[in-house]
Amino acid sequence: MAGTAGGVDKNQYGCGSELWAIHDAVQRAWDRGLRKITLESNCLDAVRILNGKSTSLLGNGLVATIFKLLRYDWMVSINHINCTCNGVADRLATLSKANSIDDLQLLEPPAEVLSLLQMEAVDFCSL
């Protein structure tokens, strides 16, 4: 995507870095040809903003750019998920920040997430 999306302070509204991550994920999904995605975030502020339930960052360049992406011809669902329910995703995201790879396919879970997978499987089964 050419140009700049504008910025959000990392700590502004507690969701600046999450909004950048959402922007990058949505842009990557579109570029890969995905046309139906579900995006889950543990940042309730970001979910509310992008679902039109909050006007706290209305007019912000980054948010406007995300809204533009969301208006493309595709289906995007944005849901809030409790942070205790997405420890594996959070850990994988943290691991990906340490690597400069754009695209990685995992054939098996990295050792760093195995214990989280087991804990989340137990929690899921107890629902």
From TrEMBL:
SUPFAM superfamilies listed in its UniProt record: Ribonuclease H-like (SSF53098)
InterPro entries: RNase_H-like (IPR053151), RNase_H-like_dom_plant (IPR044730), RNaseH-like_sf (IPR012337), RNaseH_domain (IPR002156), RNaseH_sf (IPR036397)
Superkingdom, taxonomy of origin: Eukaryota
Pfam (any one): RVT_3
Domain annotation RNase H type-1: ranges: 15-94
Protein name stated in the entry: RNase H type-1 domain-containing protein
Lineage of the species this protein comes from: Eukaryota, Viridiplantae, Streptophyta, Embryophyta, Tracheophyta
